[in-house]
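User: Predict the complex.
Assistant: Input components as received:
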Amino acid sequence: MALDVQIVKDLRDFTLNVSFSADEEPVGILGASGAGKTMLLRCIAGLERPDSGRIQLGDHVLFDKSQRVRVPARKRHIGMLFQHYALFPHKTVAQNVAFGLSRLERSEREIRLKKILERAHITGLEDRYPRELSGGEQQRAALARALSIEPDALLLDEPLSALDTHLRAQMEIQLQETFAAFQRPTLLVTHNVEEAYRMGEKLLVLSRGRVAAFGAKDEIFRHPPTLEVARVTGCKNFSQAKAVSEHEVEALDWGCRLHVAQPLPRIVGHVAIRAHQIEFAEAAGGDPKARNVFPCWLLRASETPFRMTLYLRLRQIPSDPNDGVLEADLQAEITKEKWKQFADRPQPWHVRLSPESLFVLPQY
Amino acid sequence: MPLTAPADWSPLRISLETSAVATLITLLIGLAAAAWRARRKGALLAFVDGICLLPLVLPPTVVGFLLLLLFGRNGPIGKELARIGASVVFSWPATVIAAAVVAFPLMYVTARAALEQVDLHFLEAARTLGASEWRIFWKVALPLAWPGILAGIILSFARALGEFGATLMLAGDIPGRTATIPIAIYFAVEDNDVRLAALWCVFDVVISLVLLSGLYYWSRSQWPSRARLAQR
């Protein structure tokens, strides 16, 4: 079964103009807040009316402006998991999950309900009210309810955002298992890059209502087609650039010339590198004479349990000791072990922006 | 001033019966109107709102007069009723009609606010689960709006109980049939029977006070336990 979407809808600040097609592989929809992600899901579910376009799920045309087809939400057979779950507060877990099963006969409904509760690991919570459940249990109940109608497609709006960090990883795995068993079009909206990468097979990057990228996730992370996509997929380091030769660009913001492995686009716009791909010549295995090595000064170091984030300046010694991270040219992420190898050495240190890690984005 | 029991208890009975029936009618019509109106937008709807709220702000005499025009022998509704040999004016149904009309705005406003405050996501979730709008209203919107609607019921009942002006004009003062407590008070004072007037005043104050304080007490405490009970 495939979900084909091609819709246009005027929103207050921009126009949602999206077309893509999803099959059994889950699609992670990534975008900054307000990019139109939730609106896209709502249009597909039938909760909002697009201005024009067409939505087809399998053989069923759900929406076709030109043919005046507009199937109401209740007949679309699409399961939706809302951001805050929207479990009916006045109904128990069992009643919530059984809400979509009202057309079944009583005996069959009981059997189905039992099966669904078991599959969702919420047996024993049947008689609880949503407010008596933990966040993870609420999510499981809401997902079970969405799946109870055996939908032809599943839409999830920021499914993990309401959960504590320690629950997220656990629920993420459960969601992945659900997707694997579901085998029908699944769209998952998130603004968390890593979540999108882990849970989606494909990625759809939305930017101000438009599809900035759509395809296999590895491809998009390795070769973001535009600056916007590079940003949304978590790239932190950009410099305006212009071509110098076939494999060399001049990084204008960084004030250096860089060799790049990838063939240059027709019109070079920016050169970029991800924070974790920046290497240090001072660290073990580093080669100070390699290509693309430049002196750098540390503006600020930010510590997380296992990693360091370093805000660096290229070219010149920071004049003002109060220069903050906004003055930084580069943001590098390294493990603490590496960091300890050269943290005490005198500056400048030397960063290496390897030609293979750099990518060049087109001007458009 | 010692109070003695009135010789005629009928005003109490008439008041309670009238208020109960009038509240039931307002509930049905007010809820239907509120459900239809909730979450709709449009300039014309503001006009509808205005008409629905009018009885709240108009002097009861104006309401009574308008009802007389409608239900009088030559009025559009009165004429139709006369054709089947029925007459409303100066009969018990007139007390109900007058009370229902003045109580209606309170029911309409509170029910509408309660329905509009129900989180849209619950209704949308129900929609994606295949429920019809009818089922969504009864199974999701109404139960969630219930505390507010209950407040509307109590306020309407209290207002119906206190109705005087429109009732007097449309139903008159017929002892044992249309004389409600407020009307009994008015005519008791006119007859210089201060004791009787005071006695009915006590009744009215007590009933209203019990209703209103009960409403606030209940609306605060009832939600979690009621949800459980309602599902059994």
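Chain A has a mean pLDDT of 91.
Let me know if you want any component modeled separately.
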